[in-house]
Specification:
Strand content: under 5%
Oligomer: single chain
Number of helices: 7
Radius of gyration: 16 Å
Distance between the termini: 32 Å
Number of strands: 0
């Protein structure tokens, strides 16, 4: 009897993340280097800093709040994108392969928590 289902979405249930991000950068006009600077700081924060990425992953902030923080951080780097137009989280989640996503939804009784960010 199956006790649970664990999946990794980065390139397994989605298109490769660099393709999704590249499409988002092109659509929004955000400079690749500006995005890289922000993400590097957020993924590997300095001691005492709190990463918005980690807060989002833990459910401590809403997607909308993350998008506002991302928009502000990118603007400080020199790339302007309105938070309402940022939509980075949505781009990543829309890149999910629908068949794979539907497959995982078949396992709610096995301990799978099916949650999708909109």
């Amino acid at each position: 009897m199956m006790q649970g289902l664990i999946v990794d979405w980065g390139g397994v249930l989605t298109m490769p993340i660099h393709i999704a991000i590249g499409s988002w950068l092109k659509a929004t006009g955000v400079d690749h280097n500006h995005y890289g600077e922000v993400v590097r700081r957020w993924v590997e924060p300095l001691p005492g800093e709190i990463s918005p990425v980690h807060r989002l992953e833990r459910g401590e902030i809403a997607v909308e709040d993350f998008e506002h923080l991302l928009s502000a951080a990118l603007e400080r780097q020199g790339s302007r994108v309105a938070a309402e137009q940022a939509g980075l989280v949505g781009i990543v989640h829309r890149s999910f392969d629908e068949t794979a996503t539907e497959l995982t939804a078949l396992f709610p009784g096995a301990g799978w928590i099916h949650q999708r960010l909109h």
